[in-house]
Amino acid sequence: MPWAEPHSRFTTLFERLAIDVRGACDVAAAAGLLRLSWFEAWHLMDRAVARGLAAKTLAAPAHVGVDEKPTGRGQDYITLVSDLDAGTAEFIADERRQASLDGYFEKFTADQLAQIQAVAMDMWEPFANSVRVHLADAEDKIVFDRYHLMGYLTKAVDTIRKQENRALAAAGDKSLAGSKYLWLYSHENLPARHQDRFNALRAADLKTGRAWAIKEDLRHFWSYKRRGWGAKHFKRWSFWATHSRLNPIIDAAKTLKHHEAGLLSYFDHPITNAGAEGLNSRIQAIRVSARGYRNREHFKTSIYFHLGGLQLYPATP
C-alpha cells in the first residue's frame, strides 16, 4: 500500500508520529501514549534506526572521536566512534578491542579513509593500533585527548591525597579530611565558598599541594599556539613531575612522556573528545531513563536513534 511500508502494521504517518513521541520519552511512556505494547513501540524504533542506517551516505568524517562506554557492571564496554564536527554517533561496536575499531575503518575505501584528518582518543593502545593499521601517517593523525590525559594527573593527585590523609590522621592531624573534591577542581572553577580553606591547605607544606600544582601546570600546555612552545613547556613540566618524589605523579608523567607524539599532534589538529564526552553524558541519560539495558543491542539501537543524526522517518505519499 502507498500509505504503509512493506510488512508494517502501521501507516507511514503513524510511524512518523511514533518516532516523534519516542524521541521525547522512553519506550514504556511512548507505548502508553500511543496505545501500543512495549514490543510494538520498540519495533517501530528498531525499524526507524534500520531505515536511517540504510539511507545514510557512507563518508568518513574529517575529525573522528573514539571512546569507550561502559554498558554494565565490570569490564563490559562498547566502542563509540563519533563525528566531532557534527556531534553524532557514527559507529558502535561491542567491547573495546582493536577489532572493535577495525570494523569502523573497514567500511571505507582507501580514498575515503584519506579524508580523515585526525582521530581523538585516550591512550588505549588497541585503539591506537587500529588507527596505525588503517590510516596513512597515523602517528601524525592520532591526537590524545586532553581530558583523558588530565584524568591521569587528577587520579594521581587523589591517590597522593589519600596516602597523605591517612598518614596525617594517624598523627592526629585532620586538616585534609573532607578535602577530596577541592583538589579535583581546576583553579578557576573552585567555588568561592571553598577558597579560604583551599588557600590555607595550599599554603601548608603538603605533598598533595605540590601534586596539585604539577597537575595544574600541565593544563598550560594546551594554551600554546605553536608546537615548539608546547614541546618546550612539556619538556620542562616532565622534568619537574619526574623529579617530584611523588610516585603517582612520576608514573603518570612517564606514561604521558611515552605518548608525547600524540600530545604534540594537538598543535596540528586542535581537537578534543569533548564532543564525544558530551555524547557520553547523553548516553548515560538514555541508560538511566530506561533503568539500564539488559539487551546490549537495544542499548546500541537507542544510541543510534537519539544520537546518530539519522533520517528516521519513512517516506510518505
Write a structural description:
The protein is of the alpha/beta class. Among the domains are: 63-137 and 272-294, Ribonuclease H-like superfamily/Ribonuclease H (Nucleotidyltransferase, domain 5, 2-Layer Sandwich); 146-267. Helix content is 56%, strand content 9%. The protein contains 16 helices and 5 strands. Strands 3-2-1-4-5 form a 5-stranded mixed β-sheet, sandwiched between helices. β2 (77-83) and β3 (88-94) form a beta hairpin. α1 (12-24) packs across α3. The model has no long low-confidence stretch (mean pLDDT 90).
Give a brief rundown of this model.
The chain is built from 16 helices and 5 strands. By secondary structure, it is α/β, with parallel strands linked by helices. α8 (146-170) packs antiparallel against α11 and α8 packs antiparallel against α13 (247-258).
List keywords for this structure.
56% helix; globular; 16 helices; 317 residues; five-stranded mixed sheet
Uncertain stretches: none
Tell me how many strands there are.
Answer: 5
Secondary-structure element string: HHHEEEHHEHHEHHHHHHHHH
Rounded to the nearest angstrom, the radius of gyration is: 24 Å
Write the layout of secondary structure elements.
Elements: H1 12-24, H2 27-34, H3 38-55, E1 63-70, E2 77-83, E3 88-94, H4 98-105, H5 110-113, E4 118-121, H6 125-134, H7 138-141, E5 142-144, H8 146-170, H9 180-184, H10 195-203, H11 207-218, H12 227-242, H13 247-258, H14 260-264, H15 274-289, H16 296-307
Parallel strand pairs: 1-4, 4-5
Antiparallel strand pairs: 1-2, 2-3
Helix pairs in contact: 1-2, 1-3, 2-3, 3-16, 4-6, 8-11, 8-13, 11-12, 15-16
